[in-house]
């Protein structure tokens, strides 16, 4: 375990050196989302699928290329049959429009997938930003606790000099301080890892390291900056949001579009049974040496034929598969709707619980803990309590503050997870229910 930690520290040290050579820009969450939407390399690649789908429409709507025909008879046939040169063309019957409709339906699916990718990127940026701010806040808390522990060590040393407390108090204070130092070092590693993950999510080609605004969790009324409703808002019940939340689900829209694609694919497949028409025409001539009159004869020729008549093979397996795919698409649509209701309910309940926990921390736990730790510190400094009780109290206070930070991070994360499930960034509809 220690070896893995050392390796991780070395890797992140190299990353720190790389970051040191780059411009560091501190941004708010909204800025991070906008930067990712404008510059994210993966998103740019995904958007190119739209161009491919548009070209596929042109491909589906294409006319068949003509063929150039030439007939030059040899031997006896050359004496009696005219030579011919012309073109032939296959004309598809009831196929081209069906193919184009299918390609246009695929374009709509591609556009919905791109919209989903854009939304997912926004949520990924939210999660990475929240994680970065949370790790930085935990580091800030631990550094403050380290400073308090250093003050405690100084108080213990002063009391030992005055012979008002035994030497063991200094030893205990030093052990607690060294333990805190290791926790601070680990927290710094976690911050660097979160910073790296945040920039991987933004994934821009520029030579800039994007960082979150410092201590955002410590600021008051920062929910607007984090694009999150305040936890003391009166939220509606789960049953009240389901129908509204289902309206914007991309996976439901995509599943519905896949039904449309399957229906159009069935039409394209079934129309393969319709024969195509081949027409041909051109110029025919016969030299005077090969005519009874000795004159040069010339004229035109035209012909037509039905091709690809489904006599020996009528495409039944392909049509049956297309019917099966349509049924699968319909079942997937129903399944997607059913799962969406459960996912939305679970995500919203998690968010409501996170809001309740955060309110509980802010109203009852954090303020009381601050008062208790200050009282305990004054009591020890005045010689009314021993150092062991104060160290235990400090450790408890540290756990409470870290727990509060994690509770705040969970609140932001659960809101992001809820947005993922409803596919809607606007929370104003909650207030209107």
Topology (elements, then pairings):
Elements lengths: L1 H19 L2 E5 L1 H11 L1 H20 L6 E5 L3 H6 L2 E9 L4 H66 L6 H35 L5 E5 L25 H8 L4 H21 L5 E11 L10 E11 L8 H66 L5 H36 L5 H5 L1
Parallel strand pairs: 1-4
Antiparallel strand pairs: 2-3, 3-5, 5-6
Helix pairs in contact: 1-6, 2-5, 3-5, 5-6, 5-8, 5-10, 7-9, 8-9, 9-10
What string gives the helices and strands in order?
HEHHEHEHHEHHEEHHH
Q: Which structural class is indicated by helix and strand composition?
A: alpha+beta
N-end to C-end Cα span: 51 Å
Q: What is the approximate shape?
A: elongated
The portion of residues forming beta strands comes to 5-15%
Can you give the helix content as a percent range?
Answer: 55-70%
Number of strands: 6
Molecular structure report:
With 433 residues, this protein is an alpha+beta fold. The protein contains eleven helices and six strands. The chain has helices at 2-20, 29-39, 41-60, 75-80, 96-161, 168-202, 238-245, 250-270, 316-381, 387-422, 428-432, and strands at residues 23-27, 67-71, 83-91, 208-212, 276-286, 297-307. The strands form two sheets. The protein has a four-stranded antiparallel sheet, with no helix packed on it. Strands 1-4 form a two-stranded parallel ribbon. α7 (238-245) crosses α9 and α9 runs antiparallel to α10.
Task: Name the features.
433 residues, 4-stranded antiparallel sheet, two-stranded parallel ribbon
Summarize the model shown.
The protein is of the alpha+beta class and 433 residues long.
